[in-house]
Amino acid sequence: MHEVAKQLDLNPNRFPIFAALLGNHILPDEDLASFHWSLLGPEHPLASLKVRAHQLVLPPCDVVIKAVADYVRNIQDTTDLDAIAKDVFQHSQSRTDDKVTRFKRAVAYYSATNKPMPFHPPHYLGKFTIFIGGEGGSLLFLLADLLLCFWTYPKHFIFYVLLQAEGSSSASSGSQAADVKGNQTSNPQIPCLLSMPTRNHMDITTPPLPPVAPEVLRVAEHRHKKGLMYPYIFHVLTKGEIKIAVSIEDEANKDLPPAALLYRPVRQYVYGVLFSLAESRKKTERLAFRKNRLPPEFSPVIIKEWAAYKGKSPQTPELVEALAFREWTCPNLKKLWLGKAVEDKNRRMRAFLACMRSDTPAMLNPTNVPTHLMVLCCVLRYMVQWPGVRILRRQELDAFLAQALSPKLYEPDQLQELKIENLDPRGIQLSALFMSGVDMALFANDACGQPIPWEHCCPWMYFDGKLFQTKLIKASREKVPLIDLCDGQAEQAAKVEKMRQSILEGLNFSRQNHPLPFPPPPAMPFYPASMYPRHFGPVPPPQGRGRGFAGVQPIPSQGGKLEIAGTVVGHWAGSRRGRGGRGPFPLQVVSVGGPARG
């Protein structure tokens, strides 16, 4: 390491502080961005790159290394870590105490690993020798030292040292290489650091994350360690990033969007729930109103999403903004997770349904949508609402519902004996999209405080790929009626009808807009106060939705249903053309009472 110290003009005793201030797995680059830019100063030629839209650009590695080395060299007392941290994070706008703690941990980490290794595996020693320097080929590192160096310090630091050593004199090819090439000498040049391709995500950082209540973090950490929560929730809360799983997708199929894009709006709402976006902004607006001031501009909450799909490299993250619900103010995460009142339970369910764009009364009616099938119906309803080309056709929707209600789903032996001659390629992609949606629904459910118990979320309770293929082949290729799709069970067919009506409630497919990269969030209606007990009361009827009426109206021939306080208590049939509200006339709804909207 003496050559490293020589190139940097730095005492080896200061290496732990130097390595900690470069950025690492304990104290990431993003937390040191302000410090690195402050070392360069506003007059530096690169200062104009500091702010680019919502992204903060980090200085190049070689510039950072030189600046940090100069800073560490001039530290008066290297033992006073509190004073150093105070100076380093003087421009920090959030989580200063956490950054100071991480800085001390990083220094301790590098101080410990800077000591001689107690054991060197013999098969790693003496195999290679790296020569960098003049014609004499002065020895810089043995492989053991190089491995220790790579293990101990950030990689861009080591690359920088090697390049600096190379810059003083070019390396010779050596006698063996000269013999092989016919006595033709060559001077291989290591490319300049700035000319080498760099990972783009190293130059991208995001605005600071909003603070999260300590109680929430403790609960999140406990559930994360015990495996009781979606694995990326804790990572989103603490790191502000998430990795999207890869699914089976056909790049040649333009009808079906990538799963990462299809369910991105779900994740955006979940991010808003996790960081209590709606309530924090509402409090700020109220405070500004009381002080007779204009509401301030809110800095966006940006999450890094790592995903791979057609046209998108997995090497760089996408910056996705968190969204808040439009129609109501979701309570903060502490209330959602730790609240014990009945109203808190209702809010959890409403937040989950709003994330899945399924906040309708029918989804809360156990007669139409059994609790263990709610995740299934929410995902299917979300897929149906994708703007542009319709993802789910009528027969495909029926196939999903029929297999979920089939008794064979609970008979492993019968599923094992199922034989499918020709798999439907579209069915495979739909299955993959659906399971990606289930994954996002579980993400939303855990983020909203788990309103749906885990025993009702298990995918094997409502989906089997082989069984779905058999139903889809019957529905799409053989065009069998619904009763045959349900194996002749009239009761099962009636349940499929009810579930389909609940999924399609309030949706209009008369117009198909062009597909949007980020579909706008729909208006989220209010639903009954509780999922299980229904409360009745003389509350005025809803306004502005066009779904209910102020009083009882004449019953037209197309059929309809009766609602009391938002709960469906009766149905009546109509003519065939108006059945289910899919004919030229909408389904008549008579609503008596119900909670006020807003």
Proportion of strand residues = 5-15%
Radius of gyration: 31 Å
Unreliable spans are 51-55, 117-202, 511-558, 574-586, 590-598
N-to-C terminal Cα separation, in Å? 66 Å
By DSSP, the count of extended strands is: 10
Q: Pairing-aware structural class of the strands and helices?
A: mainly alpha
Q: Number of helical segments?
A: 23
Residues in helix, %: 40-55%
Average pLDDT score: 74
Sequence of strands across the biggest β-sheet? 5-6-7
Query: How many individual domains?
Result: 3
The largest sheet is: 3 strands, mixed
Protein name: Family with sequence similarity 120 member A
Region (Disordered): 575-598
GO cellular component, one term: nucleus
InterPro entries: Coact_PPARg
